[in-house]
Amino acid sequence: MEIQIENIEGKIVARFIGRLDTVAATKVINEMATLSDNADKEIHLDFAKLEFISSSGLRLLLTLNKQAKAKGGKVIIANANDEIKKVFKITGFSNLFTII
Predict the structure, then answer these.
(1) Cα(33)–Cα(82) distance, integer angstroms
(2) Max Cα distance, the chain (Å)
(3) Are 44 and 78 in contact (CB under 8 A)?
(4) How far is CA 63 from CA 13, 29, 78, in A?
(5) How does DSSP assign 8-56, residue by residue?
(6) How many CB atoms lie within 10 A of CB 14?
(7) Is 62 within 8 Å of 96 (Cβ atoms)?
(8) Cβ(34)–Cβ(9) below 8 Å
(9) What pTM does this model have?
(10) Residues 6 or more apart from 10 whose CB is under 8 A from it?
(11) Three-state DSSP state, 100
């Protein structure tokens, strides 16, 4: 699992590559801290290369979303594949995030 983070014109773009499973979730804590530090901004999570997300990964996203809302920021999910969209729909996360 890899997360590439860039600041593009005041927006934070994080590209998720690989599988965000339980093991990966514990390894990406530092990258998620960078996103949390920028929770007052618009954060775009690019899932074009994200293959899988587990409940541990969803928990990380939920925490980030709560931090963003508290700081006046926004988390946007982009380019999710059909399986990940299905997980978001089943779990109700599709109601919590803007998905484009």
Answers:
(1) 27
(2) 34
(3) yes
(4) 17, 12, 18
(5) ETTEEEEEEEEEE-HHHHHHSHHHHHHHHHTTTSEEEEEEEEEEEE-HH
(6) 21
(7) yes
(8) no
(9) 0.94
(10) 41, 42
(11) coil
What tens digit of pLDDT does each residue of 58-95 get? 999 999 999 999 999 999 999 999 999 999 999 999 99
3/20 Cα distance (integer angstroms): 10
| CB distance 72 to 42 below 8 Å | no
Residue 82 in contact with residue 49, Cβ under 8 Å? no
Q: 55-71 and 29-37 are packed helices; what angle lies between their axes, rounded to 10 degrees?
A: 20
Dist. CA 56–CA 27, nearest whole Å? 11
Q: Which two tokens stand for residue 9?
A: 């014109």
Instruction: State yes or no: pLDDT of 29 exceeds 90.
Output: no
Q: By the 8 A CB rule, do 63 and 72 touch?
A: no
Phi then psi for 4, rounded to 5 degrees? -105, 125
